[in-house]
From TrEMBL:
CDD domains: ABC_MJ0796_LolCDE_FtsE. One of its GO terms (molecular function) is ATP binding. This is ABC transporter ATP-binding protein. InterPro entries: AAA+_ATPase, ABC_transporter-like_ATP-bd, ABC_transporter-like_CS, ABC_transpr_LolD-like, MacB-like_ATP-bd, P-loop_NTPase. SMART domains: AAA.
Length: 221
């Protein structure tokens, strides 16, 4: 399989005393549904932030879609985030004064898509995640699970190469958490979109193609 994301000897240091990532080399293959697991402070979120071009490594390299990421080129990083990467966050990060449909459409505004296409894509994805009747509702009118489904639809609306989900079930009850992870897996299979999910939910590890374990900034499995 083709690697969608590849890191080589990735290191991230804060000052002279804290090493958040230490010589991390991994490959995430096209269409893979991969989990990153580890205790708090193991480096999971730091790795996700670097893969998502939200932070820069101290040393080492990252390739996305076969091309090396230049972390000194701000405009190139913005372009990557807008076109190649989808994000799902623990806190949902929906815009409170936009409806569910408008939240899903939002990334397409920056990709200069026509209004009709934005609306069509948003409605199709809201239906796919089981929320067609909630399109006109605001985030405050939705449950936590519904908000996360909207966030998932938003992450997929621009057909990214990879979706990075950082603890997407961290604010949800156990039943809703399982439902959300199963939905991500279904979307992975249906759309062949690559997913990397940071999770502490060991009970759902069987859903993943592969689990990448981290301890003290290093990959251990």
């Amino acid at each position: 399989m083709t690697a969608i994301v590849a890191t080589e000897r990735l290191t991230k240091r804060y000052g002279t005393t804290v090493t958040a990532l230490d010589d991390v080399s991994i490959e995430i293959r096209r269409g893979e549904f991969a989990a990153i697991v580890g205790r708090s402070g193991s480096g999971k979120s730091t790795l996700m932030n670097i893969l998502g071009c939200l932070d820069a490594p101290t040393s080492g390299s990252v390739a996305i879609g076969g091309r090396q990421v230049d972390y000194t080129d701000r405009s190139a990083l913005v372009h990557l985030r807008r076109t190649a990467i989808g994000f799902v966050f623990q806190q949902f990060n929906l815009i409170p004064n936009l409806t569910a449909e408008e939240n899903v459409e939002y990334p397409l505004l920056f990709n200069y898509r026509e209004r009709g296409e934005r609306t069509e894509r948003a409605r199709a994805l809201l239906e796919r995640v089981g929320l067609p009747e909630r399109a006109s509702h605001y985030p405050a009118e939705l449950s936590g699970g519904e908000q996360q489904r909207v966030a998932i639809a938003r992450a997929l609306v621009h057909d990214p190469l990879i979706v990075l989900a950082d603890e997407p079930t961290g604010n949800l009850d156990s039943k809703t958490s399982t439902d959300i992870l199963e939905l991500l897996r279904e979307l992975n299979r249906d759309r062949q979109t690559t997913f990397v999910v940071v999770t502490h939910d060991r009970e759902c590890e069987s859903l993943f193609d592969r689990t990448i374990g981290m301890v003290d900034g290093r990959v251990v499995a």
